[in-house]
């Protein structure tokens, strides 16, 4: 199989998820930075749009073509490189993990996305303070729901037992965004415990935004 090539932006939540999944599976990949702000956004260039017409990151070049959308990419990784698994073995447990992941990916992250907040500012004429309230409201709401979902979780350090799953991948990326927006994850004790376990894991550390070649310091 040809080497994987990941088009990523260091601070993108969706890119962060895919980096974690790649690291957890121990896969080698080439990192290609796509700056989402420089020059109006490199994701809008003709060259990048030829790879991903949605003009978003991440995109992953594989032997099966260019894959987009973080959840689709991670499901492909799970099917193509099944060990170590990022989904539990039983259908009920897999559904639980997917539900927690989708809460972060589909319900929370889109509402903090740059395209949404830019629309709030440019089309609805909301000032930065209003946009920040918007972000914090929706992120905090999603985190509170996940905190409830984690009640009675299987014994272990992670969202579903002793090994990280797609739920942890998506949660850790969202925790990083929450902190960027001024939210303290200690507000949610179960989430804070899981975040601590993830941050102690070398794979999560390698995938962290600050450790990427395009990170701005």
Report on the structure:
With 217 residues, the chain is α+β, with helices and mostly antiparallel strands. It folds into two domains: 4-84, Glutaredoxin; 91-205, Glutathione S-transferase Yfyf (Class Pi), Chain A, domain 2 (Up-down Bundle). The protein is 53% helix and 8% strand. It has nine helices and four strands. It has helices at 13-24, 46-51, 70-80, 91-112, 114-122, 128-149, 166-180, 189-199, 202-207; strands at residues 4-8, 29-33, 59-62, 65-68. The chain has a four-stranded mixed β-sheet with strand order 2-1-3-4, with helices on one face. A hairpin with a 2-residue loop joins strand 3 and strand 4 (65-68). Helix 1 (13-24) packs parallel to helix 3 (70-80), helix 1 packs antiparallel against helix 7 and helix 7 (166-180) crosses helix 8. The longest helix is centred in the middle third of the chain and has 22 residues, at 91-112. The protein starts with a strand and ends in a 10-residue tail after the last helix.
Overall geometry comes to globular
Low-pLDDT segments, ≥5 res = none
Rg, alpha carbons: 17 Å
Measured as a percent range, the helix fraction is 40-55%
Largest sheet: 4 strands, mixed
The structure class reads alpha+beta
CATH topology (fold) name of the largest domain: Glutathione S-transferase Yfyf (Class Pi), Chain A, domain 2
Number of domains: 2
CATH architecture of the largest domain: Up-down Bundle
CATH class of the largest domain, please? Mainly Alpha
Strand content: 5-15%
């Amino acid at each position: 199989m040809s080497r994987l090539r990941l088009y990523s932006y260091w601070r993108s939540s969706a890119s962060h998820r895919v980096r974690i999944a790649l690291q957890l599976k121990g896969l080698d990949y080439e990192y290609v930075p796509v700056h989402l702000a420089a020059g109006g956004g490199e994701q809008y260039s003709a060259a990048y749009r030829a790879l991903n017409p949605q003009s978003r990151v991440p995109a992953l070049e594989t032997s099966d073509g260019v894959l987009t959308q973080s959840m689709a990419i991670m499901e492909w990784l799970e099917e193509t490189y099944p060990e170590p698994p990022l989904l539990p073995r039983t259908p009920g447990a897999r559904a639980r993990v997917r539900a927690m992941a989708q809460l972060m990916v589909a319900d929370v992250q889109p509402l903090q996305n740059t395209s949404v907040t830019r629309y709030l500012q440019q089309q609805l004429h909301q000032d930065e303070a209003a946009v920040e309230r918007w972000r914090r409201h929706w992120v905090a709401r999603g985190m509170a729901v996940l905190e409830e979902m984690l009640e009675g979780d299987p014994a272990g350090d992670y969202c579903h037992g002793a090994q990280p799953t797609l739920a942890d991948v998506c949660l850790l990326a969202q925790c990083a965004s929450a902190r960027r927006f001024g939210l303290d994850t200690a507000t949610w004790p179960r989430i804070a415990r899981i975040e601590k376990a993830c941050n102690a894991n070398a794979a999560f550390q390698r995938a962290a935004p600050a450790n990427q070649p395009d990170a701005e310091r």
